[in-house]
Amino acid sequence: MSGQLVHRIREPAGEPAGALILNHGRGADENDLYGLLDELDPERRLLGVTTGAPLTNVPPGGRHWYLVPRVGYPDPVTFAGSYAALREFLDGLLAEREIGWSRTVVGGFSMGAVMSYAVGLGQGRPSPVAILAFSGFVPTVDGWQPDLDGRAALPVLIHHGRNDPVIPVEFARGASELLTAGGLAVDYVETDAGHWLPPEAVAPARELVATSTA
């Protein structure tokens, strides 16, 4: 398989109906969201994949997708490297398993949500069947622009806590407005959470995974 990232695979119970890819947040790793695969796909209909970001030795430890000079505005160099690595790895893995992006849900938390937007909405990228964006934002970064043309009705679930001290909720509201204006089918869920994924956000995510890959 061309391209490689640290990752974990959760095999489906049978022939996969599609794939579910989850990308972790800042300072975590490929193990962080692995348990969420079973929460979102309890019948194991899908190939489950959790990725590990390529940057290490960055405070406060763990793995990182990019450096953060300012929230909402990733460092262009490190973002570009991780974006290329994630694209190459996921495209290669899905091709190897003979699962198209049209049957693949991609999502993540915090930095992982940013990278999910990047691979799901980037120019020239195939459209996934759905996007899950937990506590993240659509990045503003040199070298990347969202391409919303041709993605009309693409389902996107956005969850954000209005008490998030790390990434202010205004970023999620802005993403919802941007994607809705672009014709995507946005389900925006805002709760009293901080920078975490509360139980009340899991149920709609599970429903979206099930319906989009049925």
If you had to describe this structure to a student in words, what would you say it looks like?
This protein starts with 6 loop residues before the first strand and ends with a helix. The protein contains five helices and seven strands; from the N terminus they run ββαβαβαββαβα. The mean pLDDT is 97. A seven-stranded mixed beta sheet has the order 1-3-2-4-5-6-7, sandwiched between helices. It is an alpha/beta fold and 214 residues long.
What is shown here, in short?
The chain has 214 residues and is α/β, with parallel strands linked by helices. It has 5 helices and 7 strands, in the order ββαβαβαββαβα.
Question: Keywords, please?
Answer:
single chain; 7-stranded mixed sheet; globular
Q: Could you spell the SSE succession in H and E letters?
A: EEHEHEHEEHEH
Unreliable runs: none
Number of helices: 5
Number of strands: 7
Label the structural class: alpha/beta
Mean pLDDT: 97
Give a quick account of the main beta sheet: strands, pairing sense, barrel closure: 7 strands, mixed
